């Protein structure tokens, strides 16, 4: 069966079109034939009933006790009228039979109840198989009750039905053939845009993701398909670009500490040094190793987050104590720059979060504030609830601030506002990206408000209370 089924969509559409049209034509032809049959038979029945009334007025007794049928006009002769008449006595004696019957009977001798009801034509077959439409009536002729049967042949009716059916049988296959050609042309025209899109899509590769499918009519189904495909291409292009940038940035960040370690080692080997100088060289190499280790850990964290391999262990956590815990982990860094970290807020705010993951986000934000704030600066951490009762944490620094053009990209991976200073302070541009992921995985969001030269305020907004969003479930 599958071998006979068309492989191409336009052929299948044409076949379905022809099959459906053929079925509808069959139903229409059958219904029309049935309607024509009943209409013609109804006309024949009316003609038979009229003949019954006409024949009743033409009956007359004969001297020998039989019945005769008078003819008023020549054109009303039985041969011309194609009328069959049969008259029976109530005792079952045949009183008259039309010559056209040629001895054939319109029925058996009458039964006692025959003809007592209102005249209603019915179909009977004569001895030779001829179908006639016959009606029966009781008629009293000069005080003499008789049974009158009047019939007309159905030959004309069936002849018209056969002619009509012959026309349908000739027109039906012709209509299907024409419908097949028309359906194929229509399917070909309707599917032409798909062929164009298919040829265009075959030419799109990873190096040509900027190309898009043509859209003839954006409002129809094919236009919507093309728009959806183009949107997918746009997302793929953005993902590929992000992957390329990520790979290039990661390679560069990994190469920098490795190059530093190699350079320090090569310089140390060129000339003999004292133990103190060797310790200084080893310390420099360990410092670069720590930077490299931190970078690799950050990359692994983002990679596992993208793959969904980090499990979220939620628990009700006081937000103020979480902020205090995060600040205590980086307090030693602030002390080196004689900076002061203050944590203030409402101790009653409870959130349902993974304590370790959200703490890492806060640590990254506070570490970022320490790096960019000057010596003797104040860093403020506020824990509050907004007007909509959503809890939030703000990390306020006194750094150089971030201009508007950089604020939309500051949470991107490897993005730096000041590249040189970030590398100097050991940053790889991944801390804020990890912070954003940690916040969003809990159903919250992170924003920045900053004015150039007046510091920055990072706000982490979380779902209310213990009803945290769980749409991003554990994987």
> Which of globular, elongated, flat, extended, rod-shaped describes the shape?
rod-shaped
Number of strands: 14
Quote the average pLDDT. Answer: 82
> What oligomerization state is this entry in?
single chain
- What structural class do helix, strand and pairing data support? alpha+beta
What's the helical proportion of residues? 40-55%
Provide the gyration radius in Å. 51 Å
Give the low-pLDDT segments. 72-76, 419-426, 466-475
Give descriptors for this structure.
475 residues, alpha+beta, five-stranded mixed β-sheet, disordered C terminus
Structure commentary:
It is a single chain. The protein contains eleven helices and 14 strands. The chain is α+β, with helices and mostly antiparallel strands and 475 residues long. The strands form four sheets. The chain has a five-stranded antiparallel sheet. A five-stranded mixed sheet has the order 9-11-12-14-13. A two-stranded antiparallel ribbon has the order 1-2. Residues 72-76, 419-426 and 466-475 have low confidence and may be disordered.
